[in-house]
């Protein structure tokens, strides 16, 4: 299929915008409660109106939202942490009902599972319009200008922050931004502070983490390294680890990047956290990696992407971090000591 011309793309977007305007004028939320059945968020005094800056300008929210749709992959966790159930989430890892992982299920409580949006072929604009949202969150996402233009015709939309790469927003900023958008800024600050106290306690309990080098990687087109803008890497630095100095030069301004195996030396860190879907079979067959200290001394943490732990580790949020730490910290402790016989369960 040929790439459409700029004029042709404008016609497609215009036609889609007309369809969305027609849909928003019709009722029909499918499995989701109707607009009449949903209650407005109980906001904090003087929290609204609020204007939030993002990569495509700014969005002003004047009234307490009733129906929030999350097109960001982790934005719904921040909503749940603040006591708000989205009408729709976007599926990422796992096949969880409502796209709500086990780390967030308690926060959902007795509320019905949200509608799950699927983004394999792009954002489901028509489906979102049918849900009649009054706020759309796309903070942890790769929203383009064209995506934003269409979504903002449906409802006020918040795109990723300015000056940050796609999927580069930290769980802290995501939580506080969502808190501002729904009129709960003080509660959002408290949620972040609670998690930070847990991280501080773990740093105190594990002084061996302080200053040790660590990074997150996976085998994809060589070695795929997660940079310092990625929430997974930031979780390691939150625990006291230091990312390799050369990582920033290799990854650039993206959340992560593949590097050729000639740069394998960057993996010669005190700990490497590997995201994997086949255990360690492929790693053990890699002749370059097998010569490095992490392989020889088993300074590795293997995170199975298809497990609940793996899904939570990638879906870094105020709700998933405590869940992840229970599984991750013992493994980091076993890896950083350099003793191959030390293995965490």
What is the helix fraction of residues, given as a range? 25-40%
Judging from the principal axes of the Cα atoms, what is the shape? globular
Strand content: 5-15%
**Strand segment tally:** 12
Low-confidence runs: 1-13, 24-30
What structural class do the secondary elements suggest?
alpha/beta
CATH superfamily membership of the largest domain: Nitrogenase molybdenum iron protein domain
CATH topology term of the largest domain? Rossmann fold
Helix count equals 13
CATH class term of the largest domain? Alpha Beta
- How large, in whole angstroms, is the Cα Rg? 21 Å
- Give the averaged pLDDT, no decimals: 90
Q: What is the H/E order? A: HEEEHEHEHEHEHHEEHHEEHHEHH
Strand order of the largest sheet: 10-9-8-11-12
Q: Note the main sheet.
A: 5 strands, mixed
Q: How many domain units?
A: 2
Distance between the termini: 50 Å
CATH second-level architecture of the largest domain: 3-Layer(aba) Sandwich
Describe this structure in words.
This protein is an alpha/beta fold and about 350 residues long. The chain folds into 2 domains: about 5-185, Rossmann fold, CATH 3.40.50.1980; about 205-335, Nitrogenase molybdenum iron protein domain (Rossmann fold). About 35% of the residues lie in helices and about 15% in strands. The protein is built from 13 helices and 12 strands.
């Amino acid at each position: 299929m040929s790439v459409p011309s700029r004029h042709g793309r404008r016609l497609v977007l215009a036609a889609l915008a007309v369809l969305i305007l027609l849909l928003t004028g019709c009722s029909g939320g499918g499995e989701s409660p109707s607009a009449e059945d949903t209650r407005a968020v109980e906001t904090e005094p003087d929290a609204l109106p609020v204007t939030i800056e993002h990569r495509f300008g700014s969005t002003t929210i004047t009234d307490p939202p009733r129906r929030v749709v999350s097109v960001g992959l982790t934005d719904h966790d921040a909503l749940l942490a603040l006591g708000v159930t989205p009408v729709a989430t976007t599926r990422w890892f796992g096949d969880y009902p409502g796209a709500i992982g086990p780390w967030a299920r308690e926060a959902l409580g007795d509320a019905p599972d949200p509608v799950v949006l699927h983004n394999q072929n792009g954002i489901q604009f028509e489906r979102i319009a049918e849900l009649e949202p009054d706020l759309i969150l796309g903070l942890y996402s790769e929203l383009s200008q064209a995506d934003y233009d269409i979504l903002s015709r449906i409802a006020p939309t918040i795109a990723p922050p300015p000056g940050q790469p796609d999927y580069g927003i930290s769980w802290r900023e995501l939580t506080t931004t969502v808190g501002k958008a729904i009129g709960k800024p003080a509660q959002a600050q408290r949620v972040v502070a609670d998690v930070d106290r847990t991280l501080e306690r773990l740093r105190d309990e594990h002084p061996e983490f302080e200053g040790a080098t660590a990074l997150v990687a996976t085998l994809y087109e060589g070695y795929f390294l997660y940079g310092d803008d990625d929430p997974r890497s930031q979780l390691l630095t939150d625990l006291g680890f230091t990312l390799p100095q050369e990582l920033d030069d290799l990854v650039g301004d993206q959340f992560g990047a593949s590097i050729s195996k000639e740069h394998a030396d960057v993996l010669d860190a005190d700990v490497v956290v590997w995201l994997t879907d086949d255990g360690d079979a492929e790693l053990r067959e890699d002749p370059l990696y097998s010569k490095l200290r992490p392989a020889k001394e088993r300074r590795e943490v293997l995170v199975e992407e298809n497990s609940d732990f793996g899904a939570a580790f990638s879906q870094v949020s105020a709700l998933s971090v405590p869940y992840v730490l229970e599984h991750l910290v013992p493994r980091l402790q076993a890896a950083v000591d350099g003793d191959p016989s030390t293995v965490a369960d």
